[in-house]
């Protein structure tokens, strides 16, 4: 079993910044790519950012230049630094990890519980 625990959500004013973190724990061999998604009320889940095990990153156009994804492999943790926040960034943010559960196994995606980010004045 693998657990992803997120933290850092909350209320922030437009133009402000907020940092999220997500730590993986449990029994697994290694973690490959890690991701951030978000889901606004009444909308489908949207991919936000991705980072490979080697540190290469990619972003959705809607957040490019404002958000930064990073990871600490020693801590099995992925981060999302969100700057210049807009009301449309309001959503529940979820982290995800592609996990190798045992040597030689295929990848299995795990999800965090989600954390609320509200951007409002």
Can you describe this structure?
- The strands form two sheets. Strands 2, 4, 5, 6, 9, 10 and 11 form a seven-stranded mixed beta sheet that branches.
- The protein is an all-beta fold.
- It has strands at about 1-5, 10, 20-25, 30-40, 45-50, 55-60, 65-70, 75-80, 90-100, 105-110, 115-120.
- Helix content is about 0%, strand content about 55%.
- It is elongated.
- The model has no long low-confidence stretch (mean pLDDT about 95).
- A hairpin with a 6-residue loop joins strand 4 and strand 5 (about 45-50).
- It starts with a strand and ends with a strand.
Helix count equals 0
Helicity range of the residues? under 10%
Q: Which term fits the overall shape?
A: elongated
Class of secondary structure makeup:
mainly beta
Order of helices and strands: EEEEEEEEEEE
In the predicted model, the low-confidence regions spanning at least 5 consecutive residues are none
Question: Span between N and C termini?
Answer: 40 Å
Instruction: Report mean pLDDT, rounded to a whole number.
Output: 97
The beta-strand count equals 11
Computed Rg: 14 Å
Strand content: over 45%
The main pleated sheet reads as: 7 strands, mixed
What are the defining features of this structure?
4-stranded antiparallel beta sheet; 7-stranded mixed beta sheet; mainly beta
How is this fold's topology laid out?
Blueprint: E1 2-7, E2 10-12, E3 18-26, E4 30-39, E5 46-51, E6 57-59, E7 67-72, E8 77-82, E9 91-100, E10 107-111, E11 115-119
Parallel strand pairs: 2-11
Antiparallel strand pairs: 1-3, 3-8, 4-5, 4-9, 5-6, 7-8, 9-10, 9-11
